[in-house]
């Protein structure tokens, strides 16, 4: 016997909390800047966007956001699929499929975040 | 609202019938039952059996909401038949059907066996290393009143199955343990006299655990004993998460020992009568 479901659930909850925090930072910085003035100038202005894109912290932020959002979302999707009263064999297949999909999407998103960071630096 | 004018009032009991040996499928049959104020549904069923159709089948025993055998659907919701007044529930027609999410043995008799199997599978009993003391107890195990309160509400369960009938998750996923077994699983998880916390945690982390629960709370809404299994399931999840993060003390707890000397009453309080002598030769009891 394993502690599999406890582990998956705990990380689902933690990922949810981390997403609220990261999304909070995003909302405060980009969409509520008029009120809180966390970013210098207009956060959606081209010059601010391009400057931000050159920061490594921005790429790391998006990679973390992607990782936690993928985990949280795919775990939820898994729960919905397992509730369709599928057989144990199909449930195993669903688990594997979601892990592979998650890893591929994370790899693609990470590549995109790093590539846009490199691109932003190169266009300075 | 009760319609209590002090006189008998005729109600139609629309009862779902099914005899698997005779009937290709279930059907409804109407019975007219004169109901005086305060009459419970179980009395109405007895009236039908004694006066209208002796073949009507259901399960009941205590007639006082204790044995848990008379759970059934009354006007679409799970209730105890012995604990539900006809006039409180119905205007003129009362729909009576067996609990869903169970196979039907006959008429209003659900097969509670699979529920009890799931209950047993979660080791819902005290497990300890001191087997000799368990088999031949010499005294009581000591438990603080605060520790008792942690599970007392869940120990009120009478295994009637009403919560299982109301659970939407169980309706689509028969592998789900369901509210009653899980609430009882939690009851033993936090009982300080139990010594199997680590094993229980491992087992509950598997598919038998609380993971499919949506926390819709239907189980708690229908429980006739106020057990609140949905709460037990959420507390269980919290306990499992805290244990996984090594933030729970229960993992390190030693099961409660026998009542310590200093907790014993020094003197018998005044006014409490002595127990009677045994009247059967060789009979014994704990002091
Ligand atoms: S939790 Fe309540 S509804 Fe469920 S079996 Fe126990 S007493 Fe019945
Ligand atoms: S709270 Fe959980 S156990 Fe209770 S009815 Fe809902 S899904 Fe079933
Ligand atoms: S007959 Fe015992 S609970 Fe209803």
Number of E strands of chain B: 7
Oligomer: heterodimer
Total of DSSP H or I helical runs spanning 4+ residues of chain A: 5
Measured as a percent range, the helix fraction of chain A is over 70%
The outline of chain A comes out as elongated
How would you classify the helix and strand content of chain A by structural class? mainly alpha
- The CATH topology of the largest domain in chain B turns out to be Fumarate Reductase Iron-sulfur Protein, Chain B, domain 2
Pick out the low-confidence regions of chain B.
none
CATH class of the largest domain in chain B: Mainly Alpha
Q: What is the averaged pLDDT score of chain A?
A: 89
Distinct ligands, ions and cofactors found in the model: iron/sulfur cluster, FE2/S2 (inorganic) cluster
Lateral arrangement of strands in the main beta sheet of chain B = 2-1-5-3-4
Biggest β-sheet of chain B: count, sense, barrel?
5 strands, mixed
Helix content of chain B: 25-40%
Q: Care to describe what's here?
A:
- The complex is a heterodimer of chains A (124) and B (287).
- Chain A has helices at 4-31, 33-36, 46-53, 56-82, 88-122.
- Chain A has 124 residues and is mostly helical.
- Chain A has one domain (3-122): Up-down Bundle (3 helical TM bundles of succinate and fumarate reductases).
- The relative contact order of chain A is 0.11.
- The mean pLDDT of chain A is 89.
- Chain B has 2 domains: 9-110, Beta-grasp domain (Ubiquitin-like (UB roll)); 113-252, Alpha-helical ferredoxin (Fumarate Reductase Iron-sulfur Protein, Chain B, domain 2).
- Helix content of chain B is 31%, strand content 13%.
- In chain B, helix 3 runs parallel beside helix 8, helix 5 runs antiparallel to helix 8 and helix 8 crosses helix 11 (229-244).
- The mean pLDDT of chain B is 92.
- At the A-B interface, helix 1 of A face helix 9 and helix 11 of B.
- One iron/sulfur cluster (SF4) is lined by residues 157-163, 179-180, 183, 223, 225, 227, 229 of chain B.
- Residues 60-63, 65-70, 80, 82 of chain B line the site of FE2/S2 (inorganic) cluster.
């Amino acid at each position: 016997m394993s502690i599999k479901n406890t582990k998956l659930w705990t990380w689902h909850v933690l990922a949810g909390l981390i997403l609220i925090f990261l999304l909070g930072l995003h909302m405060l910085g980009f969409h509520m800047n008029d009120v809180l003035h966390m970013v210098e100038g207009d956060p959606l202005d081209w010059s601010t966007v391009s400057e931000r894109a050159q920061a490594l912290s921005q790429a790391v932020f998006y990679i973390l956001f992607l990782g936690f959002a993928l985990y949280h979302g795919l775990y939820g999707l898994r729960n919905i699929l397992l509730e369709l009263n599928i057989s144990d064999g199909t449930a195993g297949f669903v688990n594997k499929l979601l892990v592979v999909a998650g890893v591929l999407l994370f790899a693609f998103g990470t590549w995109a975040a790093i590539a846009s960071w490199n691109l932003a630096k190169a266009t300075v | 609202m009760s319609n209590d004018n002090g006189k008998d009032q005729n109600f139609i009991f629309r009862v779902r019938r099914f005899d698997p040996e005779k009937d290709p499928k279930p059907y409804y049959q109407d019975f007219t039952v004169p109901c005086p104020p305060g009459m419970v549904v179980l009395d109405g069923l007895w009236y039908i059996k004694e006066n209208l159709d002796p073949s009507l089948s259901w399960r009941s025993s205590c007639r006082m909401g204790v044995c848990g055998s008379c759970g059934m659907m009354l006007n679409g919701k799970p209730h105890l038949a012995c604990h539900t007044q006809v006039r409180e529930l119905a205007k003129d027609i009362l729909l009576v059907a067996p609990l869903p999410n169970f196979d039907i043995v006959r008429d209003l008799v659900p097969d509670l066996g699979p529920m009890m199997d799931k209950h047993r599978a979660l080791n819902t009993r005290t497990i300890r290393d001191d087997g000799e003391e368990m088999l031949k107890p010499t005294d009581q195990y000591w438990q603080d009143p605060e520790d008792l309160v942690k599970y007392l509400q869940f120990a009120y369960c009478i295994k009637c199955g009403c919560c299982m009938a109301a659970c939407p998750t169980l309706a689509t996923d028969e592998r789900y343990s369901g509210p009653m077994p899980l609430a009882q699983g939690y009851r033993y998880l936090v009982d300080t006299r139990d010594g199997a916390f680590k094993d229980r945690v491992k087992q509950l982390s598997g598919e038998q655990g609380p993971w499919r629960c949506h926390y819709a709370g239907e189980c708690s809404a229908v429980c006739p004993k106020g057990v609140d299994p949905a709460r037990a399931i959420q507390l269980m999840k919290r306990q499992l998460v805290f244990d996984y993060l090594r933030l729970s003390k229960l993992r390190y707890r030693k099961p409660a020992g026998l009542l310590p000397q200093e907790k014993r009453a020094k003197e018998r309080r005044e006014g409490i009568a002595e127990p009677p002598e045994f009247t059967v030769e060789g009979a014994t009891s704990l002091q």
